[in-house]
Specification:
single chain; 263 residues; mainly beta; Immunoglobulin-like; 5-stranded antiparallel sheet; 4-stranded mixed sheet; 16 strands; 14% helix
């Protein structure tokens, strides 16, 4: 799996930039972790969830995606507090069956006996074990991503490739591409840093919509290639966007649930 992001000053330079001819590996690999954490600025135990997720990432930086989704009652800002919510969070949380915060899903997979309720959402004490199980399992596809941000125009171009090293059990899969933002300062109950808590991996936008774009060739040897363009706004819900703090991640699901792998 491969991921790369390049910052370019001008559109003219962007026109001369050429993406790699093949940005995805073709050898079979194990799955990468896609940990979606449901959080909020008024959730007292969420900083502990952030720390657990970060530790998983730090131990396996090439094999783990963290996506922090601010949603639910604990994410509702009060007064002049920043609003970190997105249009996408409630639907993602809704399918997980979460019953408390922080909650997280690992590859949107149902781990028997570890669910908060009857869905894929788990309390933070299970995330590490679930992640280890995922990383030990073979994947039938690989994902590669290269991105360009033209700083003068805030234009984003993302190239994604998905290569199938084996057959998918489904005739179609779904590619999801997300914009994340790091190092966002703000309040966090339980963080003991006032308004200077450092929020990371914050979901800002889904380039491919709520549930992704369809991949309709999913047999061994199939190669999907897609290009996505987007003008990054100055802010989301009043929260400024620092281009250098952005990250682009991509993952593939079998339906709305069950993420096979990502990068």
């Amino acid at each position: 799996m491969k991921k790369k992001i390049t910052f370019i000053v001008s559109f003219i330079m962007a026109c001369t930039f050429v993406f790699s001819q093949t940005i995805v590996g073709t050898d079979p690999e194990n799955k990468n972790v896609v940990l979606e954490e449901f959080t909020g600025i008024h959730c007292v135990f969420c900083p502990d969830g952030h720390a657990i997720a970060q530790a998983i990432y730090n131990a396996h930086p090439d094999d783990v995606i963290l996506i922090n989704i601010h949603q639910g009652s604990y994410a509702v800002p009060s007064g002049s507090e920043p609003d970190f919510r997105t249009p996408w969070g409630n639907a993602i949380a809704g399918q997980s069956g979460l019953v408390g915060y922080p909650a997280g899903t690992v590859n949107r997979h149902l781990f028997s006996g570890w669910s908060q309720g009857s869905g894929t959402a788990m309390s933070r004490n299970y995330w590490t074990s679930a992640s280890n199980q995922v990383m030990a399992a073979p994947s039938y596809l690989n994902v590669g991503v290269e991105s360009i941000i033209v700083t003068s125009t805030r234009q984003l171009v993302v190239q994604v490739e998905v290569y199938y090293t084996d057959n998918s059990p489904f005739p179609s899969n779904f590619l999801n591409v997300a914009i994340l933002q790091n190092n966002v300062l703000g309040p966090q109950t339980g963080g003991n840093m006032g308004n200077n808590y450092v929020h990371k991996h914050m979901l800002r936008h889904l380039l491919t919509g709520q549930w992704g774009v369809e991949i309709d060739e999913t047999t061994t040897g199939s190669l999907y290639s897609g290009t996505f363009t987007y003008e990054i706004p100055e802010d989301y819900t009043g929260v400024g966007v620092v281009l250098e703090n952005l990250d682009i991640v991509a993952f593939v699901t079998e339906n709305h649930q069950e993420a096979i792998s990502g990068i």
